[in-house]
Design goal:
DNA polymerase, domain 1, TIM Barrel, 19% strand, globular, binds iron/sulfur cluster
Length: 361
């Protein structure tokens, strides 16, 4: 890979503008080339017929165009759905791999995308965390997951389109803030072939406080989900040690109050119930106290078992008791169904280079 030309898809829009200016071209050429790359999905510079022959030649001598490659695809059917949940193993230009998931539910087709190769936060219940951190994805690698999944879906079923995107795949999206925001900007450009309202895109975070504040001030219309899993600092540290120490609960609560005040949008608090660990009535009381300090709804999810990791899913009777307490406290609560557990595609199960899911790859 050493003599490979730089992949133009990895450039931010600003970098693309700078590259064009350094070639002696006006910066508006960047807008045209961006559109050819991210709306028409040109795979060769020769196809960019709006550009002069000499510029096309210069570009092909300077850059390559290397989209993500599909390596493997698995599917599983859920009880209540005719369309399968599908997991895709995708290869990046440097040989690294990520996983993305397509989830069909009613009228919705949701792409769950990755933002990092691995993750530095190493939450002990998460297969991605067990991989360690390898690198951030570029904005082009993030949008590339969506385009590839969308193209596969619509080629097999004309008219099938991705309706929602969630950043709940591999990695902590707010630790790759600039690229995630750039990717969302590209995915929501109005005159591009793939154009999705930002309101249909959810960023899921463990609570990276400085970036929550940045997001609140950014004017983005995306939704925010925060994985809490415990509303007690000590317990949260035992479940997600790095994240909970870096972003303490009381400061997280304040930043979410500021975020909802700025944006007027509720935050979704994601709470994964783990049997005998965070599912008691006391845990529900602490969660209710925490959640009442800002505009939010609560999403209870079951733990998705991972080979070699010793947590257990909550008992359904305990989940009902937990949910009822929150509802009685005046909170809006939903219980989220997990999709793709049979193929290790559900929350916390994505990993590409770990023995945790080798049996499925
Ligand atoms: S749960 Fe999220 S933040 Fe924690 S290790 Fe997994 S990917 Fe990273």
């Amino acid at each position: 890979m050493t003599d490979q030309l730089p992949n133009i898809l990895d450039l931010t829009f600003k970098e693309l503008q700078q590259a064009l200016v350094s070639m002696g071209e006006p910066s508006f050429r960047a807008t045209q080339i961006h559109q050819w790359l991210f709306s028409h999905h040109a795979s060769r510079f020769e196809d960019m017929t709006i550009l002069s022959l000499s510029l096309r030649k210069k570009l092909s001598e300077t850059f390559s165009i290397l989209p993500l490659q599909l390596v493997e695809r698995q599917e599983c059917f859920e009880e209540d759905c005719d369309t399968p949940t599908e997991k895709f193993l995708l290869k990046l230009a440097d040989g690294e791999m990520v996983e993305s998931v397509l989830i069909a539910s009613g009228e919705r087709l949701t792409a769950c995308v990755s933002s990092q190769v691995g993750c530095p936060l190493q939450c002990p219940f998460c297969a991605t965390g067990a991989m360690g951190f390898r690198r951030n994805l570029s904005a082009g690698e993030i949008t590339g997951q969506v385009y590839l999944l969308d193209a596969i879906g619509s080629s097999e079923q004309p008219g099938r389109k991705i309706t929602n995107i969630v950043f709940m795949g591999m990695g902590e999206p707010l630790l790759n803030f600039d690229n995630v925001i750039e990717a969302i900007d590209t995915l929501s450009v109005k005159n591009y072939h793939f154009c999705l309202s930002q309101k249909r895109i959810t960023i899921s975070t463990v609570g990276v406080i400085p970036e929550i504040q940045r997001l609140g001030r950014s004017g983005m219309k995306t939704k925010l989900a925060v994985s809490l899993h415990a509303a007690n600092q000590e317990k949260r540290e035992s479940l997600m040690p790095i994240a909970a120490r870096l972003y303490p609960l009381n400061e997280l609560g304040k930043s979410l109050a500021e975020y909802t005040g700025l944006t007027g949008m509720p935050v979704t608090i994601v709470y994964m119930l783990l049997r005998g660990i965070n599912d008691s009535l006391d845990d529900a009381k602490m969660l209710a106290r925490f959640a009442k300090t800002f505009l939010c709804k609560i999403n209870l999810i079951d733990y998705n078992s991972i080979i070699n990791i010793k947590f257990k899913p909550v008992l359904s009777t305990t989940r009902d008791m937990f949910q009822q307490y929150l509802v009685n406290s005046g909170l809006h609560v939903t219980v989220r169904k997990s999709y793709g557990t049979a193929i290790n595609a559900a929350c916390g199960q994505l990993a590409t280079n770990s023995s945790l899911n080798r049996n499925n790859l």
